[in-house]
Structures are given as C-alpha cells and as structure tokens.
Design goal:
Elements: E1 10-12, H1 18-29, E2 34-38, H2 44-52, E3 55-58, H3 64-71, E4 76-79, H4 88-105, E5 110-114, H5 126-141, E6 145-150, E7 152-153, H6 157-160, E8 163-165, E9 168-173, E10 181-184, H7 189-198, H8 200-203, E11 207-210, E12 213-215, H9 217-228, E13 232-236, H10 239-245, H11 247-258, H12 265-271, H13 278-285
Parallel strand pairs: 1-2, 1-4, 2-3, 4-5, 5-6, 6-11, 7-10, 9-13
Antiparallel strand pairs: 8-9, 10-12
Helix pairs in contact: 1-7, 3-4, 4-5, 9-13, 10-11
Protein name: NmrA family transcriptional regulator
Pfam families: NmrA (PF05368)
InterPro entries: NAD(P)-bd_dom_sf, NmrA-like, NmrA-like_oxidored
Length: about 290
C-alpha cells in the first residue's frame, strides 16, 4: 500500500450518480486513485469515469461478497445510498448498514458518509431519519468516519421550480415567506469529501452540515426572475396541502419552517468561495417554462 495518504485508493459508491459522481471526479482531479462501484460498468457514465482514470468495478450493495471484493485493499470509502429505490427508506437503510459492515470487515481507515442535514435532530422526515439510523450504525461499529450532511439539494428546483402563470412565473413552495432555506448543489459535495480524505486529522470524527446558499422564498423568486427575465412571484403553499399531495415533501417543508438546516455558510464559503449559488445553478441548468 502506498505510504502517501493521497495515493491510497478510495472506493466511491454511487459513482455514476450525482453525489458519488461528483466525489469521484473531484478525487480524480486532485490526483487521487479512485475505485468506482457501479451496477453497470458498461454504462456511458461508468465509461467516462474509466476514461478519466478511475478503476470501475461492478458491484451490488445487497451482495456482501460483492462489497467485500470492492473494498479489498482500499484506504477509504465514500458511501451514499438513495431512498428513491423500489424499497424506499427501508432499502436505503439496509444498504447503508451493509456498506458500513463491509467497511468494518475490511478495516477501512476513513469512511465518509453522505447523509443529510437534520439527520441527528428528530426531524420526523422519513428519509432524514433513515440516514440518522445509518449514522448511528456507523458510530456503533466504531468506524473512523466523517459524516457530511448536505442541505436541500438545489437541483430539486428542476422539479419544484417556478411554473408559468400568464406572462410571468410563480414559485409555489410550502415555505413561509420569512423562512430561510439553506440549499446545496450536489456537484459541490466532492469538494468536502476530497477535503476529508486529504485531511483526516481535521475531519475524522466530525459531522459537518454543508450548504452553498441560503434564501427565502421571495428571494428565490427574485433569482429566477433575474435569470429568466420574466416577472416571478413567490406563493406560499399551506403545508397541509403539500402533505396531502406528498406526505414526505409535506413533512420536510414543515420541518424547514419549524427548524431548518444549520450549516455555517460563511465558514464554508471562506473555505470554498466557489460554492454554487442558486443563481449560478439556474444559469447553467434551468430554463423557464414556455408559455402555454
């Protein structure tokens, strides 16, 4: 095994997804050896990782032997799971525990887990609570770990962003007008994961809540108006209405109003001034809906 910590291999889970892909690419950019775990090594994203220098391996989070093989000889692991699969939070939690168990068997030196802000605060939001239970399992195993807790993902605005209303746009969210929502761009998580692996003395044992912007609903509407050139207004949706449409979303927006994320944004920006704002994300990724 290389003696230089920055030349030791990191296994990245979800390497063809938003978070894992961002971590893999940032580690590669910094010259770190990466082993990328994916279900389909022949996919376009997997092939792009291989061309960028990653060792791409096939694996299944529900197969212990597969995990043991992927973890063989690695220094660190970036672990992230999704609750968007067919089994929801139950499947997410099972896989998160299985990865942690495999890392313990492999005696991994640094385990970085992609969680969510508020996972430690009894939010009542199912996909926050599931990540909190995975965090607890990691701690119970005694893994040398860093937990990254991102805020609301900015790319959610691709789905809950402004809608057309006459000659303008309306941003309708289950937020009180005065609620400040912290948000985070998934592509930025690679910055913090790579920092953690490069500086274990500073990051081992830490749980870090991370955000890249913080805005109220009316301020978000101003951003979308600036980017689109169309008059954009904010409209508060009653949380009860959101709950009826989607219980998970309703519980989450209720928590945003009552408690919310708690990242130290000035400190994070002082370390990484390039963190993605809502405006920067929108200019790169969002197009205003066309008039009907």
């Amino acid at each position: 095994m290389p003696t230089d910590i920055n030349q030791r291999t990191v296994l990245v889970l979800g390497a063809t997804g938003n978070q894992g892909g961002a971590v893999a690419h940032e580690l590669l950019r910094r010259g770190r050896p990466v082993r990328a775990l994916t279900r389909d090594p022949k996919s376009a994203k997997a092939q792009a990782l291989a061309e960028a220098g990653a060792e791409v391996v096939a694996g299944d989070l529900d197969n212990p032997q597969s995990l043991d093989a992927a973890l063989s000889g690695v220094y660190g692991v970036y672990s992230v799971q999704t609750f968007m699969g067919p089994e929801g939070v139950k499947g997410e939690e099972r896989q998160g525990r299985a990865v942690a168990d495999a890392a313990a068997r492999a005696e991994v030196r640094h385990f970085v887990y992609g969680s969510v802000g508020g996972a430690d605060r009894d939010s009542g939001v199912p996909h926050f609570e599931s990540k909190g239970r995975i965090e607890q399992h990691i701690a119970e195993l005694g893994l040398p770990a860093t937990v990254l807790r991102p805020a609301f993902f900015i790319n959610n605005f691709a789905f809950v962003g402004p809608q057309r209303a006459g000659d303008g746009l309306v941003l309708a969210l289950g937020l009180k007008p005065e609620t400040k929502l912290q948000m985070f761009a998934p592509e930025d998580i690679g910055l913090f994961a790579a920092d953690a692996f490069e500086n274990p003395d500073d990051y081992l044992g830490r749980q870090l809540e991370i955000a890249s912007d913080e805005l109220t609903g009316p301020q978000m509407a101003e951003v979308f108006e600036k980017v689109s050139g169309l008059p954009t207004t904010f409209r508060e949706l009653p949380v009860e209405q959101v709950l009826q449409a989607d219980e998970e979303m309703g519980l989450m927006f209720g928590w945003f109003n009552d408690e919310g994320f708690d990242a130290d944004l000035p400190a994070l920006r002082s370390r990484h001034p390039e963190l993605t704002t809502l405006e920067a994300w929108a200019r790169r990724n969002w197009t205003a809906p066309a008039a009907q």
